[in-house]
Structure prediction request, 147 residues.
Amino acid sequence: MRNNFNNGGRGIGRRGQGMGIRTCICPKCGYKVSHERGVPCRSILCPKCNTPLVPDDGRMNSISSEDTKTIKGTASSLESNSSSSRSESSHMEVNEDLCVGCGLCARECPQQAITIIDKKAHIDSSKCICCQICAETCRKGAIKLVG
Prediction:
């Protein structure tokens, strides 16, 4: 049977998305591993820092040196925040007046600590490691580290 996509069997699907994600990456240290079809990236833990991997959509590769400094700062912040000496008063907080419920933060959270309820982000503090990826992802600036 002939397909109607006229793509010559190259695997180029809807809207030119290609074969999809080819690697999974650690948002903390940058460790990469080939994506295995049918296995969600978030189900794989980084062997270096034990952080759940995220799909590598190319954003980590196309960053400036200033962004690299920010990522390294976030990584060191993550190490100190995820340790047992982390202050219990430090937590991520959502400003519900600014949050539009788009779900970008929930999609990018490596701990799957964010859910969208009634068009507002809610962070489960028992899962959150205060890595601040959600705050960096939020286009409205609605998420901040408090404490």
About this structure: Confidence is low (pLDDT under 50) at residues 10-18, 61-72, 78-86. The chain is about 20% helix and 15% strand. Strands lie at 23-25, 32-34, 54-55, 91-94, 114-117, 120-123, 143-146. Residues 18-62 form one domain.
